[in-house]
Write a structure and sequence with these properties.
Low-confidence stretches: none
Number of domains: 1
Strand content: 35-45%
Mean pLDDT: 93
Shape: globular
Helix content: 10-25%
Structural class: alpha+beta
Number of strands: 8
Length: 146
């Protein structure tokens, strides 16, 4: 099993997207996201991945539904959060990301499915945002010292 955490960063009715540099998804657009690291909470991981991939410091506002899917030899759990930007920097991890760009929902909807790393994820997230299918962050509890 693999846990992926990330954000959907909103600013002025636009969403921050990243264009991947990794070989398996080269030049594909995605929301900032990545693997949860050992001893990291999902909140910390989502903020860290967003900073590494965009240079932006964010504040998590709401939780999106949890998505699960099967990928080759494992089950993937994707946890994403709606976030507001608190600090925007121009520096980000150029080994993983070719470009970052603010896009409107309409722009994203007009793009072709093959332009995204995972079109079903983008499609579901956009639908959840439009339908306000979002949750308070307290739906997740961080249990300490078990």
């Amino acid at each position: 099993m693999e846990i992926i955490v990330g954000t959907v960063v909103l600013k002025e009715n636009k969403i921050l997207m990243v264009k991947e540099a990794k070989k398996e998804c080269y030049k594909k657009w995605a929301f900032p996201a990545g693997h949860l690291e050992k001893n990291e909470t999902i909140f910390e991981g989502a903020k860290r991945e967003t900073f590494e991939e965009t240079g932006c410091i964010v504040e998590l506002k709401k939780a999106l539904p949890v998505y699960t899917y099967n990928s080759e030899d494992k089950t993937v759990i994707l946890m994403q959060f709606l976030a507001n930007i608190t600090e925007e920097n121009k520096i980000y991890d150029t080994d993983e990301i070719l470009e970052k760009k603010w896009m409107s929902i309409n722009e994203l909807k007009k793009m072709k499915a093959n332009e995204f790393r995972s079109y079903p994820i983008v499609e579901n997230v956009l639908n959840d945002i439009e339908k306000q299918n979002v949750y308070d962050l307290n739906v997740y509890k961080d249990l300490k010292n078990i």
